[in-house]
From TrEMBL:
InterPro entries: DUF922. It comes from Adhaeribacter aerolatus. The keyword Coiled coil applies. This is DUF922 domain-containing protein. Keywords: Coiled coil. Residues 110-147 form a coiled coil. Pfam families: DUF922. The lineage of its organism: Bacteria, Pseudomonadati, Bacteroidota, Cytophagia, Cytophagales.
Length: 179
């Protein structure tokens, strides 16, 4: 079964910023996933799944205007390589493309959050409000990831997989133009 279950590894709001760590992969349009990015091992409960990428959204303060105190945020999709895994029988381009779409979906939600936060006035950007928005975006992203897996049967429904690939490609194109 080519099923991929999304595991949101946690909620991150870092005011110091996130440097790329050894076990994290920050989303980049120039770099697609490779099987080398899947360093984890499946758990016994994963016996029906062939691969899984573990992603979340990281939010950090990019800069603060000295005069106005207005913060600019940077939101990025992050994959955890040590928690992402693939079984040997599923190491093929089709399964990797399915996993890449999970990462692309995380990117869409991260960039949409960033655009929203940076368009708010200063009073709407209080730390608690920002954290609540981040948590809501992660919750919505997780639901959308689950819908993707459900509608594609974890990638097994080739026709629906092609439809989702086209939709996500279009959405990524739109969001990247807005940046």
């Amino acid at each position: 079964m080519r099923s991929c279950l999304l595991v949101v590894f946690g909620l991150f709001l870092s005011l110091r910023g996130l440097g790329q760590q050894r076990d994290t992969l920050i989303y980049s349009m120039e770099r697609k996933l490779t099987w080398a990015d899947f360093k984890g091992k499946p758990k016994p409960a994963d016996r029906h799944n062939g691969a899984q990428i573990t992603v979340t959204i990281n939010l950090q303060v990019k800069k603060v205007n000295f005069w106005t105190g207005k913060a600019r945020y940077d939101a990025v999709a992050v994959a955890f390589t040590d928690a992402s895994w693939v079984k040997a029988a599923y190491k093929e381009a089709y399964t990797l493309a399915h996993e890449q779409l999970h990462f692309d979906i995380a990117h869409l939600y991260a960039e949409t959050l960033e655009l929203e936060l940076n368009s708010l006035d200063r009073t709407a950007r209080q730390k608690e409000q920002v954290e609540n928005r981040l948590q809501q975006y992660i919750k919505d992203m997780t639901a959308y990831q689950e819908l993707y897996d459900q509608e594609t049967s974890g990638g097994n429904n080739i026709a629906r997989q092609k439809e989702w690939a086209a939709k996500i490609k279009k959405d990524v194109s739109i969001i990247n133009k807005a940046l």
